[in-house]
């Protein structure tokens, strides 16, 4: 039995840095023994099938393989299609009423305690807002991520130290759910 997963690579192909061509990423995944491989956009989204049920081991193997192939470290979060669907379903914001650029999900490599974000005064960022989910954070940024002061605050070292975290806009979240349906 195999499971369909999404691999979310952090910070590749941004402004010409950490360049990872998607065709080569598909090759790396195939060399790791995965099947039914596809990529989405150029920003490090890949789906694949694997017989493994260990998301952390899959992420670690992909991180090692990418580092060996391209010569630089890249954080990676691997999540099953059922997890991605559950995250989309649990969104506390009205995703159907918003533009994809207004809603984002940050996926973490492990559970995150609310205490990590307790020092942020959420009121000062309104109408922007965030909510924690299962190993993820939902961010509502009505003017988009690039103009979001809350996103900037959430990305500070105190909030992200020791984590692998990678953010996707809602359009990508929905597409990955679609691509990982069994």
Q: Uncertain segments of ≥5 residues (pLDDT<50)?
A: none
Q: Give a short account of the largest sheet.
A: 4 strands, antiparallel
CATH class of the largest domain: Alpha Beta
What's the CATH architecture of the largest domain? 2-Layer Sandwich
Supply the helix-strand structural class. alpha+beta
State the CATH topology of the largest domain.
Alpha-Beta Plaits
* Count, helices: 6
Beta-strand percent range? 15-25%
Taken together, the total number of domains comes to 2
Mean pLDDT: 94
Radius of gyration, CA atoms, in whole angstroms: 16 Å
Alpha carbon gap, first and last residue: 12 Å
Could you state the order of secondary-structure elements as H and E? EHEEHEHEEEHHEH
**Which geometry do the CA atoms define?**
globular
Q: Can you list the strand order of the major beta sheet? A: 2-3-1-4
Q: Share of helix among residues?
A: 25-40%
Organism: Streptomyces nanshensis
Protein name: DUF1697 domain-containing protein
Would you write up a description of this structure?
By secondary structure, this protein is α+β, with helices and mostly antiparallel strands. β6 and β7 form a beta hairpin. The protein is 30% helix and 25% strand. α3 packs across α6. The chain is globular and about 50 Å long. The strands form two sheets. Strands 2-3-1-4 form a four-stranded antiparallel beta sheet, with helices on both faces. It has a four-stranded antiparallel beta sheet with strand order 6-7-5-8. It is built from six helices and eight strands; from the N terminus they run βαββαβαβββααβα. The mean pLDDT is 94. The chain has two domains: 81 residues, 2-Layer Sandwich (Alpha-Beta Plaits), CATH 3.30.70.1280; 95 residues, Alpha-Beta Plaits (2-Layer Sandwich).
